[in-house]
Amino acid sequence: MNVRGLIVTLVLGLPAGGLLLFGPRGQYDAPPGRVVVRYWEKWTGAEGATMARLVERFNRTVGAERNIWVQYIAVSNIEQRTLIATAGGDPPDIAGLYDYIVPQYADQGALRPLEEEARAAGIALDALRPIWLEIGRYRGTLYALPSTPYTIALYYNRTLLRAAGLDPDRPPATLAELSEYARRLTRTETYGLPGGGTGTRIVQAGFTPSTAMLGWWPWVWPCFFDGRLWDGQRFTLDTPAGRAAVRWLADLRRAQGPERMLSFEGTAGAIESAQNPFLAGQVAMVFQGPWLTNWIARYAPELDYGVAPFPSVTAERRHAFASTDVLVIPSSARHPREAMTFLAFVLRQDVLEELCREHNKLSPFREPLPDFYARHPNPHIRVFEELAASPYVFGYPSMPTWLRVMDESKQLLNLVLRDPDQADAALEAAQRKADAIVREYEAMAARRRGAGR
Amino acid sequence: MRPAGGAGRGRRELRTGLLWTAPWWLGFLFFLAVPMGMSLYISFCDYPLLQPPVFIGTANYAALAGDPVFGKVLVNTLVFAALAIPLGTVLAILLAVLLNQNLPGQGLFRTCLFVPTVVPLVGAALVWLWLLNPEYGLINAALRPLAPLASGANELIAALGGGRRLSWLSELAAGPQWLSSPHWAMAALVLISLWGVGSAVVIYLAGLQEIPVDLYEAAMLDGASAARRFWHVTLPGLSPVILFNVITGLIGTWQIFALPYVLMRGEQGPGRSTYFYTMYLFDNAFRYLKMGYASAMAWIQLLIMLLLTGLVFWVGRRTVHYRGG
Per residue in A336-380, pLDDT tens? Predict the structure, then answer.
């Protein structure tokens, strides 16, 4: 190497080496001597700011006493990132995941069992409503603690009910009533075609389970017919409840006209905007969670609406879907003890209810503090709370193959909505696919056990 | 005879060369060759990412052969490529030829055509969602005059074919439900893919300007019409550029992911009609935790792309004209 080469190498190499050795190392400013607990969470914006504030409070109080510093990192696509980080052996110490992913990760041994450590850390698990613990369990072991829980209810537009001659103080209580309300609340208009003739189109639907129009849980319907989809061994669509649900969906669709409804559903605007189909008065009744109240307040503050339990097949057995964001500790986390200390802080009733209130969610506690309701921004929060207390409340099926099976359920719903006459055949086909998915997974698991993993 | 010390100098030069090219070959080694080797091994394993891989031989490849969803995404991707590449190529060439004319406002037209390629995909997808709105969209409004024609054609088909109507024609008559009909969702995606034709147009424009003017002059002296000049001068002159664009288009269409993902809001489309190869690969790897299966898919994808690229080159050997070659 000649002198010029040496100079170029030094000019380029020295800054690069300097950056590598002494360059920036991340954006946290943990006081020296503290154990840094990395906490990945999916929340950004106002939701993220609330959690960041609680983290800051922890760092100032409990963290200062125990020499712990929690670093809050908002992460997009948190499931995939946590997965890759865990597979790479460098997971966060705490991850804020969605509940439906827990069985999949727990089955792979990626999550740390929490029950004993949580009790030892002073978390009053018995003070939580049973459904929120049940959701965090997989095969009897607790892997996830609830952070911001919610249930799903029926939102209905009181103005549209009134206009259709229905009592706005008496929302439908059974699925048969829901169908009847949907029929009466569906409005069409006639329009002229070029070259003469007329066509009709739907301008307002009473109710639609379409994913395009706020029907975000395409698998859920058999549960409102007294069915439960996962019995621990089989995902069952072909039960009497499953068949009744598919027939109900098909009948509802036929009454509205499948092709006209598809066209109508194609007009749905962005969900978080004034074009939201419920806010715009396109759909009179929707199956939605407490966050819809936020959007109403922001984009349609004049909307006269009500919230009620979603109807079930009978008025006596009110089924309710419950779900929650969860906090987990990956099994290969570097600081699990310190992570549990932070979780114990977050699970304190005053702290967690502050978080839930600001996220417009429910309290996971059996007996919320009086302040929780008094300051809650959602005037209908008690309806959602009552659903969580229902003996007929249910969560996502606790199965490790849930995402695959859910995709098949989604396809089933799409097929029924497009061609209700093929509903029975579509259900049989979806059942066969679900069985194949579970069988394949079990074969893999058996092979893995055989390989000693 | 080599001068004394030549071997030492050669070794020194080799070392220097290796040192200076280290960023590339280290990158190649650690970020391409090793991952590819690992991916090949994993394709023969059951690997749920969170546990170590277990060797299962060719079971993943055998399972792919019997997987109806794999068949569906393969066909979807092939159909998309078969429609989007020829249509995109023809449209891009025609636009490039038009923009190559010495007309006023040429720069403005060129800019207008290129602008869509710099619009962020999410923004473009939102615009297209409105354009394709089945009730209030501009595209269905433009198609509405065709409704009686489509309806009439379908009645004729029904009369000739024992009462059987074509469902896609019925949908056309009623106004296509672009994104919610399995018959039209693919057409919608192909249509939207043409929106980004501007980048190919720019390359074709550069190619057109490389074609010697004397060839056109000679053809005109021989009395060739504009169409014959296009066929016998422009197209052969552009053929190396066409080959390049077709190959990059082929690779691009086989990797289609973001457009259907954004447009269908992460869904697989009606009847999985807009579910493509890389989307299923992604789902297997990162949602279903079947990394071995996804790796097998990736290797099959690579083989398919090599095969198709080889086929294009083979066709190109007969049809592509290189100047002086």
Answer: 999 999 999 999 999 999 999 999 999 999 999 999 999 999 999
Q: How many domains, chain A?
A: 2
- Nearest-CA distance from A88 to chain B in Å? 9
Q: State the Cα–Cα distance between residues A95 and A328, nearest whole angstrom.
A: 5
Q: What are phi and psi of B175, to 5 degrees?
A: 100, 110
What domains, with CATH codes, occur in chain B? 6-60 (no CATH), 67-132+178-319 (1.10.3720.10)
Residue B169 · residue B154 · CB < 8 Å: yes
Nearest CA in chain B to A203: B135
Q: β-strands A94-98, A320-328: how paired? A: antiparallel
Assess contact for A76 and A45: CB atoms under 8 A.
no
Choose among A145, A203, A166: nearest CA to A346.
A145
Boundaries of domain holding A208: 153-322+398-442
Choose among B145, B268, B286: nearest Cβ to A194.
Answer: B145
Q: Is residue A50 in some structural domain?
A: yes
CB B257 within 8 A of CB B278: yes
Percent of chain A whose pLDDT exceeds 90: 81
- Single pTM value for the model: 0.89
By CA distance, what is A9's nearest residue in B?
A: B20
- Decide if B288 and A404 are in contact by the 8 Å CB cutoff: yes
Distance from CA of B158 to the nearest CA of A (A): 20
Whole-angstrom distance, CA of residue B212 vs CA of residue B214 = 5
The total of other beta-carbon atoms located within 10 Å of residue A7's CB is 10
Within 13 Å, how many C-alpha atoms sit on residue B250's CB side? 18
Indicate whether this complex's ipTM tops 0.90: no
Q: Pairing state of beta strands A305-308 and A153-157?
A: antiparallel
